[in-house]
Each structure stands twice: as structure tokens, then as C-alpha cells.
């Protein structure tokens, strides 16, 4: 039996992780398909996390250009999930904020997505779940750093 070289094992692990993440994304999308597009979820999430903000700030956080985020915000505004309010620091500008209906919709979406994930890990030991959570946080931090770098270069 041949033991794979460290680089081969790392490549195999990275390949397996890539397919696992794609499968997880597909499953999460299938379980919540009829609820909201991922772009809308990201807008609501960032507004809940950071509070009301100018559309330019929101575009940067979500990673979309101004025209795309403006359309997305317009659609969410029509649904009553976000609202525009005057910016107290600059009367010429508006802030985009999450409405109570938007917060409720995001909470429902999050609960359904969490339930789907809970099903997947129901048989895991607490130790395995803790290890996975720690490593997933590490991956999320790396993703955030990569996205911040890409946004700075746009």
C-alpha cells in the first residue's frame, strides 16, 4: 500500500471539502428555495447585524455594485422588509433599515435553515460538533478576509 504524499493528501482533503461545501449549499438552497434569494438574505442579515446604513455601505458589505444593491433594496422595500429613513447626519442622504417584518422574515428563514442543519448533525457527538464548529469558524474567517480583500480592489 502506498501512503500518499502530504501534498496529495492535502489536495484530496481540499477537493473533498469543496464537494462537501457545494453539497451543503445545494441542500440548504433546496430546503429554503421558496423563501428568499440568497442576495436578499445577505441584505437582511447585514442590516440586522450592523443596523441602518447608507446603500453604499450595504453594497460594500454584501459585495455588490450600487445598481445591483439598489434593485435588491427596492424589491425588499416593496415587500416591506426594509425601509429608507433620513440620515440624521446628512439630510440629503437616506439610511436603509430593517423593518420588523424584515426581522421576522429573516428569523423564520434562519430557523428553517438551522433545522435543516440540525437534522444533518443530529447523530454527531458533542465533541465532533464542537470540532466542526471551530473549524467552520476558521473557514468563515478566511472567507471574510478574502472577500474584504476582493472588495478593496474593486
TrEMBL record:
Signal peptide: none annotated. CDD domains: HTH_ARSR (cd00090). Residues 1-141 form the HTH marR-type domain. Transmembrane segments: none annotated. GO terms for molecular function: DNA-binding transcription factor activity. PANTHER family: CONSERVED PROTEIN, HTH-TYPE TRANSCRIPTIONAL REGULATOR RV0880. This is Transcriptional regulator, MarR family.
Amino acid at each position: 500500500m502506498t501512503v500518499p504524499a502530504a501534498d496529495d493528501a492535502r489536495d484530496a482533503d481540499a477537493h473533498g471539502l469543496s464537494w462537501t461545501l457545494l453539497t451543503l449549499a445545494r441542500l440548504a438552497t433546496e430546503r429554503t428555495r421558496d423563501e428568499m434569494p440568497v442576495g436578499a438574505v445577505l441584505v437582511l442579515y447585514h442590516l440586522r447585524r450592523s443596523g441602518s446604513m447608507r446603500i453604499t455601505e450595504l453594497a460594500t458589505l454584501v459585495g455588490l455594485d450600487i445598481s445591483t444593491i439598489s434593485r435588491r433594496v427596492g424589491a425588499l422595500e416593496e415587500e416591506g422588509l426594509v425601509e429608507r429613513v433620513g440620515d440624521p447626519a446628512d439630510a440629503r442622504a437616506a439610511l436603509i433599515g430593517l423593518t420588523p417584518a424584515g426581522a421576522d422574515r429573516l428569523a423564520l428563514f434562519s430557523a428553517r435553515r438551522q433545522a435543516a442543519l440540525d437534522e444533518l448533525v443530529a447523530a454527531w457527538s458533542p465533541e465532533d460538533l464542537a470540532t466542526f464548529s471551530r473549524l467552520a469558524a476558521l473557514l468563515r474567517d478566511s472567507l471574510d478576509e478574502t472577500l474584504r480583500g476582493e472588495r478593496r480592489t474593486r
